[in-house]
Amino acid sequence: MPRRKFRNTQRFESPEERTFQEYITNQPAPHTTRTELLRLIRGGEDTYLELKIKLSNPERITQGIVAIANTGGGTLLFGVSDQLRIEGVSNPEWVQDELVRICREEIVPPLVPLIDCIAFDSGRRVVVLDIEGKRRPYRTRDGRFYLRIGAEKRETTREELSAWLDEIRPLGYENIPLPTVLEEDFDDALLWSFAGGFAEDVLGKNIYQTADFLKKDLLLATGNLDEFFPTIAAVLLFGKNERVAELLPRSKVTVARFSGDNGQAQVIEKVDLQGNLLTIYEDILKFISRYCDLDKLKPKKSKAVADSPVQARGNYHLYSVTEAVSNMLMHRDLALREIPTRVLIYDKSIEFINPRRTNGFVPPASRAIRYGISQRINPQIASIFSRREYGTSVPRGGLPMVLRGTQNFSGKRAEIYTSNDEFKLKLYSF
After folding, report:
1. DSSP states along 179-213
2. Binning pLDDT at 50, 70 and 90, where does residue 2 land?
3. Do 254 and 278 fall within a single domain?
């Protein structure tokens, strides 16, 4: 659109590497011309331009900035009426300082504002705020997302937000707040068992203060004072099993046992596992143990019996399987709704399939992970899930250990491959 292109010309030195303090102290002289400003005003409000007579409601201004940033960037003018008359602002310095504060403190992730102050011969001054949405999605500090459509902004619906996040596939999906989740949706026994694993006095100070503990101690929730907006990571880690299934149905894991060497064979048993990550982790290992033997040391000889009509149980390295399950749960790309996480057990192998964006990941990154150079999608989930205080026994070493351990155990090299937004790891039995 011409007006958007006109406003997005490179009028400023890139501020990406500058701090807010540098911006405030070293702000360049205004570059917006009065001719440019008048041209914008004559066109009226649209998707990329919003007019404000003054800055009187910081909360609404924050929402407006978030909406424009999420819609691809645009401009806010302060000192212009809805009738397109230039009224000016009486306190432009304060307006600029307040805009800097809003962009830094009220918006997540923070924005670096590009601000001009245009003076007219009449003495009226207009403050121009240019917004660049380079790190979408943006939200207000209380966890709300907005979009600007035409001259109006509106909060995104759950369906719109989900579809939007799927499209842009943000790495910070685990940090998305869920406004409808309540304190009673969390498993207090699991949460406080985790807390007590670090210091016993934590329980005395915070017992049953779920919201405060998740917000202030674990940084797994947002909101002001009495507000409580837990993140997806919080729900997956500490939510009650039944509530996780309701709130995040895509988080289920499908496990299946086939009576052959591939997915074309007959299915013996297939189960959808749901609940918090600890529950799913334990249930996956139980399912695998039902059909396979997991040992720490390599067996001295094969258990297969010649000419036996019954297929011998697969024998796998315990630590490699445990790490494979943990890695799968910690690094799921939940932004990919249509691709489920699966654990498929065959006669002589186990395959772990996870949603993982292919774009930007292969082929270099898929080779690098063999050497422990990983791209963590969910760093908060991974940091808590891998702690023994959470209840898991995640081995150390990551995928390199899995590859080395399973080869030493079975004599067969594990396979790693990616395609169609899926990451696949296949381990072979002894």
Report:
1. TT--GGGB-HHHHHHHHHTT-HHHHHHHTT-HHHI
2. very low
3. yes
